[in-house]
Design a protein that fits this description.
about 525 residues, alpha+beta, 14 strands, rod-shaped, nucleotide-binding, kinase
């Protein structure tokens, strides 16, 4: 995953600023129209109210009817103009002749603008026009006497510049509010980004995503089954190996999100979650499948937030142990071989000190000839040096035990293509020979025959002993786990032997009669190195 172009803090700040700016911008657009309309309406009402107030003035009505001095109208109109801060207050008669005007020189002249016609016909209205002064909003109201007869009209003008300033003033408040909102949004975004980044331990989103992908791949790749629960005992993690074991145990369905005690009643993860303790190498039964389990709590800030268990099929662990046991048997055989030669050296040393040189010469010659014959036969027929060394060591071990282990190989056994099969052969041969050696331990004739026969990609291994033999009932149970005629805590060797043969897709045949000895025959596929295509 590529690194992000922007940091989390920058993304949050940009996003919040855009949202705030867009929201306030739309609000400003909508409210500005209303403000403009409201200001214009307010100015219209103001102008009309002033015009109405002037139109009902007895002084103005009297002047238009000739009862009072017309000059008084000029003074009254200018006074009203100054008090209300309008552009002009003009009183006119029915011919449109002005009785008042901000410019005294215009008094007595006809009203200009061209929009006074309707008011002289008795209509009240507001218009926008330009007369002698600047363009203005004009409110016209007819003047009527006490009998209801129109005797004139009054026009009140408010400069459009004044209206524009009022609208601008209203919008400025909105703009200032918008800027303050953006500033608050930026400040809040910065604070929010810092809090989120602290919660995320300073990691950026791309780093979190990459870390999550890597951890998920790791958990799915391990061979051990992994299952985890949260504080509520719900399953939050099940890797591929765990699902495979669950399927083998007959547990179907997706366990994610289920209560652990509902899916795995025999688990102790809830106990681990409550106690905070740990359990290692514990056996657990899953519908007939025995697994070895390690259980530990998940602790964050000294508080348990969940529990996790790792487990593996016990049979696989035992097979692995047996493979290691095969290597150990190989080492034991070599140790016996070395011990045998140490004894021979002691014999040679004794003959030298007693000056029995003729006897010494015969003994050394006999030993060398026997060794050369034995070594030559094994190394000539078994091309794999590890397996050859193991067989030679087993022969030495048998002699040390006072038994005879004969070896026969009808055809040469070449090296295998897959070197891992050597460990399996050591496990098979080692267990069969050891079992045969124990069977003849108390017999008068202590003889074990080992025969290897390789043909057509099939390796046959036969081990025959002169032991007590077995009944049919014993033969049916000899491969069962834990069954043994040699005491407690035994019965694993042949059980694991059968598992190895099953893994190699081979066959095992047992022939035995009480008092006549036992013969084990193993048939396994064997691909030779020189036959690889």
């Amino acid at each position: 995953m590529k690194k992000g172009r922007f940091s989390l803090q920058a993304i949050i700040i940009i996003f919040v600023c855009l949202v705030v700016a867009l929201s306030l911008g739309i609000t400003d657009l909508l409210i500005s129209k209303r403000i403009t309309s409201s200001v214009e309406e307010t100015q219209k009402e103001k102008a009309l109210n002033i015009a109405k107030m002037v139109s009902v003035s007895p002084q103005v009505i009297g002047s238009l009817e000739g009862e009072t001095n017309p000059k008084e109208v000029q003074a009254f109109a200018n006074q009203i103009k100054d008090l209300t801060h309008v552009n002009f207050v003009v009183v006119m008669d029915m011919k449109g002749i002005r009785l008042s005007h901000p410019d005294p020189g215009e008094v007595g002249r006809k009203f200009r603008g061209g929009d006074e016609g309707p008011v002289l016909q008795g209509k009240e209205y507001v218009s926008i026009s330009k007369g002698i002064l600047s363009p203005s909003m004009r409110a016209f109201t007819p003047i009527k006497n006490s009998q209801g007869k129109q005797v004139g009209a009054v026009a009140v003008g408010i400069s459009l510049e004044t209206v524009t300033k009022a609208v601008h003033k209203g919008r400025m408040g909105m703009v200032i509010g918008t800027l303050i909102g953006i500033l608050i949004g930026v400040t809040g975004a910065v604070g929010l980004a810092r809090v989120i980044k602290k919660i995320l331990l300073g990691l950026e989103p791309f780093a979190i995503a990459r870390l999550l992908e890597e951890r998920s791949s790791m958990l799915q790749s391990v061979r051990e089954g992994i299952i985890a629960i949260d504080q509520e005992g719900k399953i939050t993690l099940v890797n591929r190996a765990a699902r495979k074991l669950f399927k083998k145990a007959g547990l179907e369905g997706d366990p994610m999100g289920l209560k652990i005690e509902d899916y795995l009643p025999s688990t102790r993860l809830n106990h681990i979650l409550k106690s905070g303790g740990t359990e290692f190498d514990q056996e657990q039964d899953l519908h007939g499948v025995t697994i070895l389990v390690n259980r530990v709590p998940v602790v964050v800030n000294n508080q348990p937030v969940g529990a996790i268990a790792t487990f593996r099929d016990k049979t696989e662990v035992q097979l692995l142990a047996e493979q290691l046991t095969g290597v150990r048997n190989y080492a034991d055989a070599l140790r016996a071989h070395a011990h045998e030669y140490m004894n021979k050296l002691h014999v040679i040393l004794g003959l030298v000190r007693t000056e029995q040189y003729h006897t010494l010469a015969n003994y050394v010659s006999e030993t060398v000839n026997h060794r050369e014959t034995e070594l030559g036969f094994v190394t000539e027929n078994v091309q794999d040096p590890v397996l050859a060394g193991f067989l030679i060591g087993k022969q030495s071990f048998a002699r040390e035990s006072g038994a005879s282990l004969s070896f026969d190989c009808s055809n040469k056994l070449p090296k295998p293509v897959n070197q891992e099969i050597t460990n399996d052969l050591i496990t098979i041969i080692g267990n069969l020979v050891n079992n045969a050696m124990e069977a003849i331990a108390d017999r008068p004739i202590k003889k074990v025959d080992l025969k290897l026969d390789y043909a057509e990609d099939i390796l046959t291994i036969e081990v025959k002993d002169t032991g007590m033999g077995m009944t049919k009932a014993m033969q049916n149970k000899i491969l069962d786990k834990g069954f043994s005629t040699k005491g407690d805590n035994r019965g694993l060797g042949l059980y694991l032997l059968a598992k190895v043969i099953e893994k190699l897709e081979g066959d095992l045949i047992i022939s035995s009669k009480p008092g006549k000895g036992t013969n084990f025959a193993v048939y396994i596929p064997y691909k030779a190195e020189d036959e690889e295509s």
